[in-house]
Amino acid sequence: MPFSSLSFYHPALREYRITIKPLYHSPFICMHVRRARIDDVEKIARDNVLLAEESENKRILYDITLKGVEEVISDMNKGFYLIAEEEDAIIGQMMVTYEWSDWRNEQMWWLQSIYVDRAWRKRGVMHALLARVREMAKEEGVALLKLYVHENNHAAMAAYEKSGMIRAPYIMYEMRV
After folding, report:
1. Which of 8, 82, 138, 139 has CA 20 to 30 A from 61's CA?
2. Is the pLDDT of residue 4 over 60?
3. Is residue 10 packed enough to be buried (19+ CB in 10 Å), middle (13-18) or exposed (0-12)?
4. Is the dihedral of CA 41, 108, 77, 32 positive or negative?
5. Hey, is 118 helix, strand or coil?
6. How far apart are CA 28 and CA 123, in angstroms?
7. In 3-state terms, what secondary structure has residue 133?
8. Is the whole model's pTM more than 0.85, yes or no?
């Protein structure tokens, strides 16, 4: 669905406000996109548990996830979360971590743990999160935004492609240590 949007910086709050308006038959959504704070960790961790079940059919432990989210929010060297709010309710989230490319001599950001509450899907929430992280990346001189997606998560793939992302020619491997 095409959107028109307005983004503006709120200097007193040091945060961005984004208004998304679908161009067809829907009312305005007034969304606030900001960096997550420590008081957001429980909701983010709950959403991460839902995300794992929904996207990978994987059960993850809430207590471990809660500690992981706390680590990221407490230590900017690990990354940061952006959240989208509507009337003070968190309706979407995205974690950003960092990678340095020696081949490119450039900074890249990885987008992870992207989740939008079911009731808010297809209403511009992911668009708002991506728009904000893209603005931040440009401000920081970041060259590339990357993400990975489970091979069976076709809905997410379609949403990312619709947002302008292109599929990269890489396959990921992992090894437990």
Report:
1. 82
2. no
3. exposed
4. negative
5. helix
6. 10
7. helix
8. no
